[in-house]
User: Which sequence fits this backbone?
């Protein structure tokens, strides 16, 4: 077993602190990765504080991992020592079901294994520990290559925020000639703007805050609508082909459904907390044959695709670098919305 230094939550109410734990001895198909950077996702807070239920402690969060290959097993063909690689939101799946065979491991019929707060149920039943650590051992099928053109610091959140917004845009065919509204201007929303623009769509940000208008335009939005302004919302009626909804808190979907054209699609990617919402009026769907759909991250092949797409189009996440020791303060700032738009931990600088 490998002794690894990390940072962990030991309960739902305790601050994260240094934690030494064991990872499995590398197997023949494993890649051992020296972690250089780990993005901080809002879901890390939800899980560390057991806000979704089912949290397992001690917990080492982190599923936006960038690192350098330190060793490879004898059967590894995809990577070599020294390669810059990434690990996203999952580290195993059954590899046998219809979803896995369709490169949709996130929808594995047996349940994919998350990068942290899970169990390696398809192999050794050991707990999974995430990227707030110095090393990780992952089967080569769940490792992706970081293109040389990407800045590795700001590439880390592409492995969650990036793929979460890119995957539904591609799946539903968002592109040239389409008008899309992006609801919310946080870590997911600002990436949604960038990908929708790169795919050729006309992009409008919906935000509650007048203060975010200039920032939305800076991120590439063509237009901004203040969602609390009844006149602006009325003027948007039946104007959009798509909505990309990144908001993770309760909000009324009906005004946004009303802004869709007939056959329009409202895509949910923000996991609402608490997990309920004002009711959807059936007429807002039925009378215009609108769709209300959801999407969860992306498969490994599509995660590699979004990295390559990002490198080609010069897309990265806006990040603020922090030390591992500053994570508890970073959590407090995230809750207040005081970050543009993702924290990334410099794990290489962490000495314990």
Assistant:
């Amino acid at each position: 077993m490998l002794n690894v230094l990390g940072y962990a939550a030991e309960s739902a109410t305790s601050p994260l602190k240094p934690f030494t734990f064991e990872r499995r001895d590398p197997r023949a198909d494993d890649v051992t990765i020296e972690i250089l950077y780990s993005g901080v996702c809002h879901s890390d807070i939800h899980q560390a504080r057991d806000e979704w239920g089912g949290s397992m402690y001690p917990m080492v969060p982190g599923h936006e991992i960038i690192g350098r290959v330190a060793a490879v097993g004898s059967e590894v063909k995809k990577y070599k020592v020294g390669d810059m690689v990434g690990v996203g939101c999952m580290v195993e799946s059954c590899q046998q079901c219809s979803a896995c065979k369709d490169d949709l491991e996130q929808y594995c019929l047996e349940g994919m294994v998350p990068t942290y707060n899970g169990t390696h149920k398809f192999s050794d039943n050991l707990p999974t520990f995430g990227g707030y650590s110095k090393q990780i051992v992952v089967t080569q099928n769940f490792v992706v290559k970081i293109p040389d053109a990407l800045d590795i610091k700001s590439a880390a959140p592409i492995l969650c925020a990036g793929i979460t917004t890119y995957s539904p845009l591609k799946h539903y065919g968002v592109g040239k000639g389409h008008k899309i509204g992006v609801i919310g201007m946080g870590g997911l929303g600002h990436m949604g703007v960038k990908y929708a623009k790169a795919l050729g769509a006309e992009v409008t940000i919906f935000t509650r805050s007048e203060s975010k208008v200039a920032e939305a335009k800076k991120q590439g939005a063509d237009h901004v609508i203040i969602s609390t302004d009844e006149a602006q919302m009325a003027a948007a009626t039946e104007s959009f082909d798509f909505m990309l909804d990144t908001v993770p808190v309760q909000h009324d979907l009906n005004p946004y459904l009303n802004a869709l054209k007939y056959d329009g699609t409202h895509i949910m990617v923000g996991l609402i907390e608490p997990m309920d919402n004002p009711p959807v009026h059936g007429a807002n769907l039925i009378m215009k044959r609108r769709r209300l759909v959801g999407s969860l991250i992306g498969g490994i092949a599509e995660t590699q695709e979004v990295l390559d797409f990002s490198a080609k189009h010069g897309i990265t996440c806006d990040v603020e670098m922090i030390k591992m020791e500053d994570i508890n303060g970073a959590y407090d700032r995230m809750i207040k919305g005081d970050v543009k738009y993702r924290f990334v931990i410099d794990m290489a600088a962490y000495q314990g």
In short: The chain has eleven helices and 17 strands. The radius of gyration is 20 Å. The chain has two domains: 2-160+317-349, 162-294.
